[in-house]
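Render this sequence as a predicted structure.
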Amino acid sequence: MMKKILNLLALLSGLGLLSCQALPEGFGIEDPGQYSRIYIAASYNGVQHSEFTFPENVSVNIYANYSGVVPLHADVNVSVADDLSLTEAYNAAAGTSYPPVPAACYALNRSTTTIPSGSTISAEPAVVTFLSAGFLDDGTYLLPVKITEVSDPSIALTPALSILYLSVSCKAGELSVTFQPLDDYNLEDDEKW
């Protein structure tokens, strides 16, 4: 009986040692980099979207995100920029008729953000500030903001999630900002995800 208990303890100890061994980086997947992506999580329509109303200027933080099989081994800089030319395509796809936000109504205060090594989200966001004094007419406007550059060229963008559409409504000097996803995008349909 004692011999059986000792054998069982030896077996359990061996299993314990095996379970403590680290998995290989990338989990043994050939070319794990092909599964690495940079994106803006707020641009996905599956996330909770809120409307924010402010009596004056409002700043919107835009975080870049990383997803991959292997962790980041170095900081990754991500640049964003406004792209008003995307307004027409958004309106056609979404069945809306938003005009672009006038240039006097916003400022891109910080256009580069960094995802630190080992992290999955940028430490400091890119920042867009909407200026209530610039809106001369009440209405709803659209500001597309997209990722324009990633410092590590081996990490791809998820194209549909690299653009954040911000709708800005102005009424009597109060601003409301809403994150507007394109409803027809579905992660499961993205072949490159």
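Summary. Confidence is low (pLDDT under 50) at residues 8-12, 14-23, 184-193. The chain has two helices and twelve strands.
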